[in-house]
Amino acid sequence: MDTRVDGVAFKSGYSEVNGLKMYYELYGEGKPLVLIHGGGSTIQTTFGRVIPMLAKHRQLIAVELQAHGRTSDRVGEVSFEQDADDVAALLRNLNILKADIFGFSNGGTTALQIAIRHPELVDKLVAASALCKRNGVPSQFWDFMKQARLENMPEQLKEGYKKVALDTNGLQVMHDKDAKRMVDFKDIPDEKIKSIKASTLIIIGDKDVITPEHAIEMHRLIANSELAIIPGGHGEYIGEVTTLKPNYQEIDFIAIPMIESFLDKKE
């Protein structure tokens, strides 16, 4: 289906992926860049403000993961490894042999798993506010996740889901599966992180959920990586919907020129 959002044309569709009907959107032309949203989010709630900027110079493949947005669910828990396999299968269905990958938050952890599990598909990698180890966030984060309730989910994310989901009753299921995934989160072993050969840009905000120490540890483990710590909170640097300020402008999304420069850099 052809549509326009904020003056940007895109095509949307569904692909049969590992038992899911996986929703995706295609924007622009050029080298492929895959966008992977954060936990509890949709394409638009994570990337809606910056898609018009990124689509000027490349083809974007924006996805919605299991139980999120317009993508169906399957029996069983969600995992970063399965999400990575789902994105890889979608790319193969779309005949995309190699792409740059940009994931935010939980999507950043999924992006790292794609680089670990499907290295042949990854050219460059942008891991934004991604978590690899439990000590990468303050200890109180885990207590918060154990107490997670749908009523405490940010209203912007609940509204974003209800705006696009085919069945809004899935909101509770998505919330509970995402919360359980985080409660059960296990460290990605050092050797797997070190196995990432893709040129990688690691980004966090200086007031992020992810600690600067964790970002530095990731930077040291991934040999071919760069690190950027940007002023702002979790996703503020890309206009993630819960961080938006009144009268925001494109210039506020300060990570985008940095990401584009990284992606355009010749190896």
TrEMBL record:
Alphabetic keyword roster: Hydrolase
Which Pfam families did the record assign?
Abhydrolase_1
**For the AB hydrolase-1 domain, which residue ranges apply?**
31-158
Top-level taxon of the source organism: Bacteria
Q: Which InterPro entries match?
A: AB_hydrolase_1 (IPR000073), AB_hydrolase_fold (IPR029058)
Question: What one GO molecular function would you report for this record?
Answer: serine hydrolase activity
Designated name of the protein: Alpha/beta hydrolase fold
Q: Which organism is it from?
A: Aquipluma nitroreducens
List the top taxonomic levels of the source. Bacteria, Pseudomonadati, Bacteroidota, Bacteroidia, Marinilabiliales
